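Notes from hallway chat w/ T.B., transcribed later so I don't forget. T.B. wanted the structure written out for a chain they're using in a teaching module, and asked if we could keep both sequence and structure tokens in one place. Agreed to drop them here.
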Amino acid sequence: SVMSRAELSIVSGSVSRKVRGLARELLDGPTACNPYEQGDRGACTFCSFKKVCGFDPAIPGYEKRMLEKLEDTEVLKKMKEET
């Protein structure tokens, strides 16, 4: 067992809210490139659309979101606070 039922419920709820929010953004119109970076990894590392997305950190206003490294308990706490 990786997490309790209560913890799984928190994670599931958080993911559902995030997916609904992203779907609303897509339906509302164009979305901006908003890649992340965390340590030596980032969204662009795995993206197959690098050549067409238009993200260029050399252009003013184009910045990657820097994600902090959190312990599992901290992530779960933040998800719980969202509700």
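Follow-up for T.B.: The two ends are 24 Å apart (CA to CA). Might be a good example for the class.
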